[in-house]
UniProtKB/TrEMBL annotation, chains A, B:
Domain Thiolase N-terminal: 4-221
CDD domains hit by this protein: SCP-x_thiolase
Coiled coil regions, renumbered to chain: none
GO molecular function: acetyl-CoA C-acyltransferase activity
UniProt cross-references to Pfam families, sorted A to Z: Thiolase_C_1, Thiolase_N
UniProt organism field: Thermalbibacter longus
Gene3D superfamilies in alphabetical order: 3.40.47.10
Protein's name in the database: Thiolase domain-containing protein
Domain of life: Bacteria
Domain Thiolase C-terminal, residue spans: 239-384
Length: 386, 386
């Protein structure tokens, strides 16, 4: 396949924003172009990942809207939706467009504006990413779905909730060094113990927040990468896989088969193995999801992810730093932006531009973006410019 | 670019259906596989065009849902949304995936379930494909937007509404021979004169209906095409372009620049010109849109499309048959399905399988799928197997 590189990356701060949907997307997109030293006129196609702008802000058909706001009126522009994996799926679309030889310069944007919607309605809108007819309509919203996974995991492997605490505490600590993060607030096990229960065993601090935000990357054909201002980050591999939306059809709630398949495809394309990865940005929409992710990605054996989290193996100075950005948990989770935001963070880390959250000696970074309760997963592997 | 062919095609009947969203999509997808003599297990990726299943039927994340219902759980599956051009945009995504060399066999589905929503709400949902903040929120829904285009066109070129009548009468007549069409009802100029005004000059019979429906095609790499049951239809060219959602930003309401750009790209890729086209399925969401389309596609000069419609140049036996299927006007317009349905009709025509609506000697067929009031346009050119 044709080589592709990331030459520009930017994101808005995640959290409650005064900016509108289109203002957020435009800020991130312009940031990525500026980062690359590129002019808007160089962009040949736009892919926009967004989950549900129609319900959140009454605006569908967002891809040409954002292209037009950027002054890119006539380029092909396409919105991609795969629930909370919309961002990384838009990235895959951009990869395919360049690999097909159609374009050399493609802008990938992820955006969501969630905080202008009443919270109860937001919970319903998010639940439409699960199987509405069979599960969410009768009350299984996402906190419940991931609580079932947490119960299954804790029961199967004999853990207490201290492994969940470890993820929340670590990610809140990591976010302290991330200026783009929604929360800058260290938390303790006592804070978690005193926080409201959402869906047993998941408390408020086990859940990622409702957020506004946008992120963007500029993708270019490998041979064009040298024409831009920043060192190119190489896309070495990616994998996408799907699964049933409905949990009742899954034989095992302690793993996401789509994540395993996506990871296998990404590792195979990149020709690397889990032990080669320097850091991972994973989809911790709930704390349990990060633990399961570290197993699905092959960093730990089934059942060992909980102990690894507890023992600090996923902290900044651990065996495999996971979510140095703070993750969805503390960086925030504007759903359509999240997958692109992970790629932005990986790009900053690979360039050595991650400031106070920089991990030393990053050679390979992995991102893991999940839609729904695992019906979509996209894994990417990025490497430093040779 | 790698050659791609259509080897399977199917659609549900358009109109008010008792089937659910997922049942419609599955019926069309299974139909396309059966048509090709393919097994579900041969499909390597799914692209699903759908406009707003979240608001219409409370179900987002529809791509893995449909993949799963088809027993294709772990293949990559992606929803694409570009308003009423979602279907053709999904086709473009499928083309890119094969051209990139990632897959050899890709299923493209378009689906929408609209009739279970109250009509006033449907008008609002559709208006979210226009610029909500600046136009639709204050009342410019699509009948109004296309009425402005019609007024501009009639005024600029000095026509009366008989040119609109000609489109509606022709497309209703064509649909009589289409078993998949929503309406099997011939109409007269008198029927139109007696019908309710929707947005001056557009009456009820100038507007495409609200519909349920789904359509699917099986795309394969050119060298794999001989392994399937039906003659391959070759994809010779395609083009996609965007424009401002807001009408107030358009300098001229009598043409869609995105359609002109998409057509130019498709003609260039195919190496053909408008006069080579045997028939066209165009996006007549309103009668005026068909007239403008025939000019944007280069069949007629600006201002001559109205006279061509009046004189029968676009009828079944005219210079360039337009919408032999009945078009959106009479075949129906389940928005996400429409663009894929156009490709299904073109495939049937190129294979000589269009029954009572077959056009003689079809060598090249063109499809033209528009999103919103022209902020997205996708044009494709298909040819008979060599």
């Amino acid at each position: 396949m044709r080589e592709v590189a990331i030459v520009g990356a930017a994101e808005t701060r995640f959290g409650k924003s005064e900016l509108s949907y289109r203002e957020l997307a435009v800020e991130a997109a312009r940031g990525a172009l500026e980062d690359a030293g590129a002019e808007p006129g160089q962009v040949e196609a736009l892919f926009l990942g967004s989950y549900s702008p129609g319900t959140f802000v009454h605006q569908e058909h967002v891809a040409p809207l954002i292209a037009s706001e950027l002054g890119l009126s006539h380029i092909p522009s396409t919105r991609v939706e795969n629930a909370c994996a919309s961002g990384a799926t838009a990235f895959v679309s951009g990869m395919m467009a360049i690999a097909a030889g159609l374009y050399d310069v493609v802008l990938v944007v992820g955006a969501e504006k969630m905080t202008s919607t009443p919270v109860a309605e937001t919970t319903r809108i998010l639940a439409e990413a699960a199987d509405w007819e069979n599960e969410s309509k009768v009350g299984l919203t996402f906190p419940g779905a991931f609580a079932l996974m947490a119960q299954a995991y804790l029961h199967k492997y004999g853990y207490g909730r201290e492994i969940l605490d470890a993820v929340a505490i670590k990610n809140h600590a990591n976010a302290l060094a991330n200026p783009y993060a929604q929360f800058h607030k260290a938390i303790t096990a006592e804070d978690i113990a005193n926080s409201p229960m959402v869906a047993d065993p998941l408390t408020l601090y086990d859940c990622s927040p409702i957020s506004d935000g946008a992120a963007a990357i500029l993708l270019v054909a490998g041979d064009a990468a040298r024409n831009f201002a920043k060192p190119a980050v190489r896309v070495l591999g990616f994998g996408q896989a799907s699964d049933s939306l409905a949990l009742y059809r899954r034989p095992d709630l302690t793993t996401l088969p789509a994540a395993r398949q996506a990871a296998q495809r990404a590792y195979r394309m990149a020709g690397v193995s889990p032990r080669d990865i320097s850091l991972a940005e994973v989809h911790d929409c709930f704390t349990i999801a990060e633990i399961i992710a570290t197993e699905d990605l092959g960093f730990f054996e089934p059942g060992e992810g909980g102990e690894a989290a507890r023992a600090g193996a996923t902290s900044r100075d651990g065996q495999i730093p996971v979510n140095p950005s703070g993750g969805l948990k503390a960086k925030g989770h504007p759903v359509g932006a999240t997958g692109v935001g992970q790629l932005v963070e990986a790009t900053f880390q690979l360039r050595g531009e991650a400031g106070g959250r920089q991990i030393d000696g990053v050679e390979l970074a992995l991102t893991h973006n999940v839609g729904g309760s695992g019906a979509t997963c996209v894994v990417t592997i990025l490497g430093r410019a040779a």
